[in-house]
Amino acid sequence: MPASLVEIPFDERRIQIEYQWLRPERTQRPLVVFLHEGLGSVSMWRDFPRHFCEAGDYRGLVFSRYGYGRSTPRPHAEKWRPDFMHRQAREALPALFDALDIGPGRKHGVPWLMGHSDGGSIALIYAASFPQALDGITVLAPHIVVEDLSVRNIAATRQVYLDTDLRERLGRHHDDVESAFWGWNDIWLDPDFRQWDLRPLLSGLKCPGLAVQGEDDEYGTMAQIEGIHRYAPQTTLLKLARCGHSPHRDQPEALTQAAVRHINTHTSYLK
């Protein structure tokens, strides 16, 4: 199905969110909601969500967060605050689910979340904040603390954006590429953001979780997913060799096999 727009309330205004349903006719199958990375969008996922849903015989929902893709752009003078991922998880995502009739007792039922990078962190916050509102999570290269490695390579990405054709390449996926890039880059390099820390929330994770990290991840170390397991020991860890920050691009088959097994194992009517 082509992408559509839905209007939701956020930050005392109305914004439009780009979204796309995958295989919606599979009404009796689990729904997987895909949460993109810090520079991602519906189109930046490419074909992975569709292939994943076909492999597991799932329904899917892919969407672009505020400021990304074809969703309402962030005004250039508006700066993300250190709590921007908390606000996405606790305000924007519930509003989107309300608008699309997703959740307990609703038309599309309770979802699974699959989040990448910033999207993985948002999935963790949502799961800890609304434990009855989802069936489980898969997080790919999530952040739970700000590491020096992350800051160093995000600073390097800023220079790449200024010096190469990265702006043009990202512009294929975002209506306002300057808004998307600088919103992400500025907050991650803000000194105040160094204190950002999800660890106090993680003991609130009650759902089944799969946390995935590449051994060659340039934006985070294994301390990220190992920290999740320390506070939420029901979380299964998957460490992938020959894999960087994007397991769905670098190791799609291994990720798909593990995540489908994870969902099917923890979905009662599929056992």
Automatic annotation (TrEMBL):
One of its GO terms (molecular function) is hydrolase activity. Keywords: Hydrolase. Pfam families: Abhydrolase_6. Residues 32-256 form the AB hydrolase-1 domain. It comes from the Bacteria. This is Alpha/beta hydrolase.
